[in-house]
Amino acid sequence: MLLGTVLLLDPICLGFCERYRKVNSRSLNGKTTNLENSNIVDVAIRDLELVLKFQKSDLERFDINDGERQNELSSRTQLIKLNTMFRKLNRRIKARNFGIRTYDQSLIVPTLLFADPDTLEMLSLYAEVDDDWEMESDEIVKTEQWKKAEQFFSDIYLMNLKLENVCHFSRFEIKTNSITAGELNTLRKIFVSSPNCDRWEFGFKHFDEREQAELSNIWGPSFFFDYKRHWYFRLKNPEEEALLDFQMFCGQFGGGEGINCITFGVCEIEDVPNGAVIQDYNEN
C-alpha cells in the first residue's frame, strides 16, 4: 500500500515522493536518499510518522494506494504496519481530502478509520479493478468519516444505499445498483430546498422504462438536448438567478457501452434553452 503525495499547508512544503518505487529514491526536507533494496512501504511509513509527529497544520490531501497489484497477505501486512504506527502516535490523519485506491474492498473501511473525521471535507474511494466493482454500503455509511465529509467521489458501485445516507453531501459522484422515480423526486425536494447542495451525480445499473415514465408523470415532459433529458426547477431562494438542472441519460452513447447517469446541478437562468419549461419552486 504505497503512500501518495502528502503536502503540509506550511510556508515550507514537506512532501513524500509518490514515485518511491519507480525511481528507487525519495526526497524529504530537500534531501534525496537512494532506497536501493529498502522496503518501500517501511520507508514511506517512517516518513509519514515523521510528518505527522511534527505536523503544524492540516494536510490538504492524503492518498493511500495499493500501487502495483499485491496479494491479500501483503496488503493486510501493510495495513497492520500503518495501524501500529497510528496507535504509536495516538492520532489520526488530519487531512481535508482523503483518498483510498485499492484492489481489496475489505481494506476500505479499516483504512478510512485512519482519517480524522473532524478535519475531513472530501472523501474519495476508487477501485483498481474493473468498472463493475460492487461493495455493500452498510458498514461505510456508519463511519463518522462518511457522516462528516462534505463531498464524496467514488467509482465503486455502493449497493443498497439509502437516500438519507447521501443527502448531507454538497457534492458527490456515486454509483449504485438502481433508483426509483419516487426516490428521485425526494432528492429533488431536498436539493431545491437546501442552500448547501451543489452537484449530485449518480451512475446506476437499472432504471427501466416504467420508472422513466413515472418520472415524466411526476415532473411533466422533459426537454431533450445534448443527448440528455432535462428538467428545470427554481430553487427555494427567490433572489437567486439560478435553477436546478436535472439531467438524465440512459442507454448507449456513441456506440459504446451502456451508460446510465443522473445529475442534479445548478445552472443560470440564461443558460436554459429556448422552449424548455422552468417549473416554480415546490417543496411538495
TrEMBL record:
<protein>
    <recommendedName>
        <fullName>DUF38 domain-containing protein</fullName>
    </recommendedName>
</protein>
<feature type="domain" description="DUF38">
    <location>
        <begin position="82"/>
        <end position="214"/>
    </location>
</feature>
<dbReference type="GO" id="GO:0045087">
    <property type="term" value="P:innate immune response"/>
</dbReference>
<dbReference type="InterPro" id="IPR002900">
    <property type="entry name" value="DUF38/FTH_CAE_spp"/>
</dbReference>
<dbReference type="Pfam" id="PF01827">
    <property type="entry name" value="FTH"/>
</dbReference>
<feature type="signal peptide">
    <location>
        <begin position="1"/>
        <end position="15"/>
    </location>
</feature>
<dbReference type="InterPro" id="IPR040161">
    <property type="entry name" value="FB224"/>
</dbReference>
<keyword id="KW-0732">Signal</keyword>
